[in-house]
């Protein structure tokens, strides 16, 4: 199959590589000429613009097949605006990025092409093994793109059509909410072991758990890797954790659906907390303990 | 190696089978003559009492090697009381059950034998693949029993000495606390998907996630199995969840160490909540909403 790939960051390059390895033809474009050249070196046909991608795909009688791997939000809309004059109902556009599902529903309605929203999990670490792809949109378009999904996913079991437009990014959103809570659950357990009453080799703990224990998982393999490379005390790894958008979306959707998700929310809140320079609530607690109990108010030494 | 196994429930029988399959000689005893007979059918030498186990093991010059797989708590102490007259410093006793680590430390101090506390994870589902074994106690005893640990665990990577007495059951306790939180995290995600805005095949979601997604794990494989066998709505599976002791111990230890474990506690609290017939706090909330807002008080139809 001939596939146009637009957006050649780390994930886009992996999409290109996996499609080429599976024998597909790839036309590749990125706003960065350097990224386009990297894809060309891998064997893709380089294009000079979104329009040029479409021109080079027009040879395929069945319609154009396009994979967008650009950052979520405005870049998706900007790319679609460039594509729109060249799209018709035979074409299929896949958004493989981390878009919010509402936007994917809106974009599917707005475009002349068949639009597939594709949640992609596994990250750059899965370049070799392939990704998990959660896909929403028209069934014919999903069937049509199946050879490409087979190539990018771990295989036929690594992708499925979850439902109509938005369902792919919806399932991916919830996946990420669960991911936050799993990370925090392992984090709490290892923190208790690190602060607890035995002097433990946490890499040994993680490795032993990963061989046969109920909580074995890929995230636990990454914990073992972290302790092996950083030590049981995690060395100089900072305690500020970035990210949060997909977790926030999950909690917002859970509020709208009135489904309690206390652990997912707790994990998200912990991440927000990690980025605070002094919590107002803790400072108020210090002042209130003085208020009722005349406990001395702890104050920052610099008077702030 | 010659091993005495005392306690032949589901887990004890698996220990017997895996040791026999690895070529070890097993002397087996359970209070249930039927369970002892089952082990004998598998190839173990049946014993008629704890004393009889010891008599039959006395041929080994290096000392007796004993594996206890009895319920945590009093049964462990009762078995050790029966064993004690027959134990000396050359003997090794392994407690492979779910004992609380404080008890394991106490028992290790009280016995003449070398005492290994061994947390065993994987459950009966791991009969074929083997267990994860977290072991605490004297190093020489751990080294001495390694051939048996190799047989019962997934292999050499499936067991390790975590530290001195109690460390094995300590790490297993925290494992279980993490397990509660992981189960609740997946539960929240699938509940949001089940109650959310798409009509999803949750087996397909779990299978797709398990092929390449960040949250892939053995528990997620068990989720896929559950949805395959029960349906995406889980059919008539009840919402009362049993168990809780190891999670409670984990939270108690976290309180003692002043390590915050909000997700582990939240998962434990959710389990307690599932067993309540009407929460007092919710009933008080109903009455308070009347108190300040004159909202009609919802009342059980039967007047209770």
Key traits:
homodimer, 12 helices, alpha/beta, 2 domains, eight-stranded mixed β-sheet, 304 residues, Rossmann fold, N-(1-d-carboxylethyl)-l-norvaline Dehydrogenase, domain 2
Describe the model:
2 copies of one chain form a homodimer. Chain A has helices at 10-21, 33-42, 50-57, 74-83, 101-110, 139-152, 167-195, 202-210, 218-230, 245-257, 262-274, 280-293, and strands spanning 2-6, 25-29, 45-46, 65-68, 92-95, 114-121, 132-136, 159-163. Chain A is α/β, with parallel strands linked by helices and 304 residues long. The first copy, chain A, has an 8-stranded mixed β-sheet, with helices on both faces. Chain A is elongated and about 80 Å long. The interface between A and B is large, with 76 and 76 residues.
Structure summarized in a few sentences:
Chain A is of the alpha/beta class and 304 residues long.
Uncertain segments of chain A: none
Average pLDDT across residues of chain A? 96
**Tertiary shape of chain A:** elongated
Query: What's the quaternary structure here?
Result: homodimer
The largest chain-to-chain contact, stated as pair and per-chain residue counts, equals: A-B, 76 and 76 residues
Write down the CATH class of the largest domain in chain A. Alpha Beta
Spatial sequence of strands, sheet with the most strands of chain A? 3-2-1-4-5-6-7-8
Residue fraction in strands of chain A:
5-15%
How many strands appear in the DSSP assignment of chain A? 8
Category by helix and strand content of chain A: alpha/beta
Profile the largest sheet of chain A.
8 strands, mixed
Number of helices of chain A: 12
CATH fold-level topology of the largest domain in chain A: Rossmann fold
The rounded distance between the terminal residues' Cα atoms of chain A is: 63 Å
Q: Taking Cα atoms only, what radius of gyration of chain A do you get, to the nearest Å?
A: 23 Å
Order of helices and strands of chain A: EHEHEHEHEHEEHEHHHHHH
Total domain count of chain A: 2
Shape-level CATH architecture of the largest domain in chain A: 3-Layer(aba) Sandwich
| Helix content, binned percent of chain A | 40-55%
């Amino acid at each position: 199959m001939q596939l146009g790939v637009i957006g050649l960051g780390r994930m886009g390059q992996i999409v290109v590589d996996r499609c080429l390895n599976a024998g597909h033809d790839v036309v590749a474009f990125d706003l960065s000429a350097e990224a386009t050249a990297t894809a060309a070196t891998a064997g893709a046909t380089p294009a000079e613009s979104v329009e040029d991608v479409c021109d080079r795909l027009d040879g395929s009688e069945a319609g154009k097949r396009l994979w967008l791997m650009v950052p979520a939000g405005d870049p998706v809309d900007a790319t679609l605006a460039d594509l729109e004059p060249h799209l018709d109902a035979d074409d299929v556009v896949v958004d493989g990025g981390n878009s919010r599902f509402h936007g994917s529903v809106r974009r599917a309605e707005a475009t002349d092409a068949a639009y597939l929203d594709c949640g992609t999990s596994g990250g750059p670490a899965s370049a070799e093994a392939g990704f998990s792809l959660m896909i929403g949109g028209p069934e014919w378009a999903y069937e049509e793109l199946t050879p490409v999904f087979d190539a990018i996913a771990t295989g036929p079991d690594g992708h499925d059509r979850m439902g109509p437009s938005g369902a792919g990014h919806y399932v991916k959103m919830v996946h990420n909410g669960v991911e936050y809570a799993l990370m925090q659950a392992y984090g709490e357990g290892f923190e208790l072991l690190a602060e607890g009453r035995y002097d433990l080799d946490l890499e040994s703990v993680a490795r032993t758990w990963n061989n046969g224990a109920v909580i074995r998982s890929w995230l636990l393999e990454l914990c073992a890797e972290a302790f092996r490379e950083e030590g049981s005390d995690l060395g100089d790894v900072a305690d500020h954790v970035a990210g949060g958008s997909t977790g926030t979306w999950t909690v917002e959707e859970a509020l709208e659906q009135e489904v309690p998700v206390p652990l997912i929310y707790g994990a998200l809140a912990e991440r927000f907390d990690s980025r605070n320079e002094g919590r107002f609530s803790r400072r108020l607690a210090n002042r209130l303990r003085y208020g009722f109990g005349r406990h001395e108010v702890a104050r920052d030494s610099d008077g702030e």
